[in-house]
Amino acid sequence: MGYDIERFVGYVNEGLLCSICRDVLEDPLQAPCEHAFCTACIHGWLVHHSNCPEDRQMIDVSLLRPLYRYMKNDLNRLQLHCKNRENGCEMVCSLESIDRHERECEYSQIPCSNAGCTAQVERRNLDGHLAVCEFRSRECPNGCGYTILSAEDTQHNCVAELRTELELLRSEMICRVEEAKHEMESRLDSQRRHMVQKESILQNEIEELKSQMSRLMSDVRSLMAAERQHRQELEQAELEKREL
């Protein structure tokens, strides 16, 4: 739906009106036949029809295009009243900036920010409403630190609330201790497995070193035996030489 034409100040060109709702174009689209529509209006129309509502020419969603720039500029320059005019807002601004103004307008109806409160109040009156809202919260005046609603003042029991808070803290602490315990056990198991694995690797390396040492000693003994044999052969050769 478009903007209510009654909100606008001065003359509005016929070409800036939606061909379906006959209000001033909102988020406009243009058909190949140059008729313009509000996006919501033409999309709703094409659900049940396949032609232009003005001249009955065949159109499709894929053929719709943004409004010509000069028409868009003319549209944005139109002056209109704020939608909160009946509530007291006297602002008149361009269509291009109306959304920004209305988002911040002091006369706009906004919901109360207190949980549980369904009241809608003007933005300018929100602080006053929050001060008396039955759903407003505040800290217990007796010093227990509990946040209470005004409607619960007569039912609030500091001792009961503190006991409940203590139980919650105790339960949370127990959970955290259990989590820390499980985490430590998991780490210890992981380290134990790692140590066992390292021990196995070291044991294999020791066995390999023993095997190498054994082979080395065998080689040394073989070399010593060969040396003794060689020495004996030299002595025998020396004796034979002397006899000759």
From TrEMBL:
Entry GO MF terms: ligase activity; zinc ion binding
UniProt keyword Transport present: no
Any Gene Ontology biological process: regulation of canonical NF-kappaB signal transduction
Coiled-coil regions listed: 192-243
UniProt xrefs under InterPro entries: Znf_RING, Znf_RING/FYVE/PHD, Znf_RING_CS, Znf_TRAF
Chain positions of all zinc fingers (TRAF-type): 101-144
Pfam family, one: zf-C3HC4_2
Protein name per the record: RNF41 ligase
Organism whose genome encodes this protein: Atlantisia rogersi
Lineage: Eukaryota, Metazoa, Chordata, Craniata, Vertebrata
